[in-house]
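the two lines:
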Amino acid sequence: MRAPMSAGIAGVALSLLACGGGGRTVVVYTSVDQVFAEPLLAEFEKQTGIRPRAVFDVEANKTVGLANRLIAERNRPQADVFWNNEFLQTMRLKASGVLAASKPEGAGALDARWKDPDGVWYGCGARIRVLLAREGAPAPSSLRALSEQPQRLKSFGMALPLFGTTVTHMAALWSRWGGAETLDWIDRLQAGGARIADGNATVRDLVVQGQLDLALTDSDDACTMPAGAKATIHALPAGEALFIPGTVAMVAGAPHAEQGLALINWLLRPETGERLIELGASQISLHDPARRASCLEGLMIAPPEASLAAIEAAADAAREAMQARFRR
Amino acid sequence: MKRRLGAALATLPLVAFVYAPLAAPGFAWVALDAPRWQALLITVAWAAGVAVATTALAAAAALALWTRGRAIAILAFLAAPLPAYLHALAWLPWLRGPWLAPRGAGPWLMAGWVMVFACLPLAFAVVWLRLRALDGRLADAGMVHQSPNRVLAKVVLPLWMPALAAAACLVFLLSLTEYAVPSLFAADPWTLEIFTDFSARHDAARAWGLSLPLVACALPALAALLAYARSAPAQGRPPADAPLRWWMTAAAALLVLQWGVPLAMLTQRAAAAPLSSFGPNVGRDVLTSYSVATLAAAIAVAAAAPLAWWLARETAVWPWVLAVLPLAVPAPLAGVGLVTVWNRDGVPPLYGTAAMLVLAALARFLPAAVLVLAAVWKRVDRRLLDAARVHGSTRAVLLRVAFPLFAPGAAAAAAVVFILSLGELGATLVVAPPGGGTLSIRLYNYLHYGAAGPVAWLALMMTVGSLAVGWPALAWMARRGRNA
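prediction for all of em together
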């Protein structure tokens, strides 16, 4: 009994330790939802013969996981490519020296707004911030207008603005409205009893369940409402809208740089942008902003105003202010 | 000298697997301001409330099942393998309603309800096992002249109190470091503060500094837990009869609800989900998770056994404290520490392989195995070993006397580590090798995406796997305990 058990344990141990794989591989760290990223990476492998080995993030870690892992590994990088579903964290990693410049083939086709001037990161599919309204509940004309209707604030919700796209949106508002007006808006929301939930998907669910009339959320969360959900999606006006491009970048010191560049090339293709929309990972094409997911058809989507660099410049101040406001 | 050397050698696995990764990121002192103090106090108060409620419920249920056989009580552990966030998934549709305010105390109450049910199996195990070990003849004798309520208050409770305190402390520790469940109900625990700061500054040393208040709050609970673990084991049998009260029956019914609601929800959602809703590589994740949990359980028992043996004979408190202190540390810190230790030149090339998942599980749960095994060693009558040594070789004593006495406890420790490893997320996320995801990562990703069907399937797989390990271990322990 004991000998076979010992051999079994040793066999499991050896097989685990031996796993590493041969052949052409590329290691990609991605915060794109696993349900979207996995099928796409499988298509990449089929078309190029390069086996992707992915590390996924989880929503619960609120971006702590992958970014900190990349920084912790900076002296001996394991990843080749960082594929992010937003841009702020990518810009911060660039500032930390974790990412490196690359020259992918598809870079020329991208508008200058959606790529790093130093060639470190490139936009890959985009989402936008939207208002989700319960059926029968009128959507306000703007976020400013919403804050001037205190009676509606109790049935409005958004995610906690300490992480992810919500704090990025606060940074965008900070860069356009200024800090004082942004904080005034936040204070009105809090005074009016707005619901602050743990994530964009949560506030979406609250609207779908009828517990809230309005929610500020991401387009991918809004567009993945259950079929038959009684809610409508509304675009934000110019000055309040936020485009959230996904970004892809080479990791500095990547062990498989050639395969990493091949993956970046593949992700920047217009066809891949189409697939991202089909899968639901993004809702707007960066190659053709008129091309959008069906859930956003007919919406007047304002073109992005503030540059990503301006949003990044405002991010630290916005984050500190949000932490002071929302720590209880 | 020989004893000190033996103690040093026995603690080596703990240092290597647990303390080295925790110490690797460094430490930075962080002063707390008023909002942070408030957040910490609310978290501590919530955890204490969950601990008291869970223990009271577990105690009432244990009294109901005191004389009613092990088989029925084992039903209490059906949902033990489910991570707390899956209990939250099951209860969310019913808790989020107009009858409970969505802000203020409301989110904490909802999160508390879920945590009570998630921790109930563990608390029940602690209090029920001790209740079964009490000398029931004392209760029988007391009930000759006094009412059952008076006997319960004056005879049973005083003897039972250490176990009740231990269960409460265990639940307190689990609740104190829990992040996922409170955040699902928009209640912001102290761990959120740590994650917020970690996310903003990428400073693991500072995150350690922020964890220190949490660890300090956990110390009294750890001390109480250790006092119980170090106490003399009880040897007894249940009373001839234990009258049933309505509140005991209600508690036992809640015990059934505790596993009935999540399993019914999971089964219903799984039945509605087509297999095509799974992404690729699911099978690989399942295999990786079970392999890692099995290996971690085996290594944890082997590494913890000598340390537990030494602890069981140690009268000083500080070795016990050092052995279990890491249980109070948030998981991502352990992950970052492992990266710091193993992603460098001059160490075996384990980084980037699935071996890191095993190391993450050991870093988190080796102290739990030490605690369980130390309690086991304390129950072993050393006179049996001394008597065996008179006529047998050391090898024969180990194999034919010590091992059979130790084996049921080893099975329990292995089962505990297996179940905990299967659901581990925080440290796993930081060290998961490329292309080597686990069931917990996939499950949590599907949960966020709203893929209820695949979530239900994966959760059922996790439950079945844990039950396949946990129940035989429990049954074997029960059988050996009966034959002892």
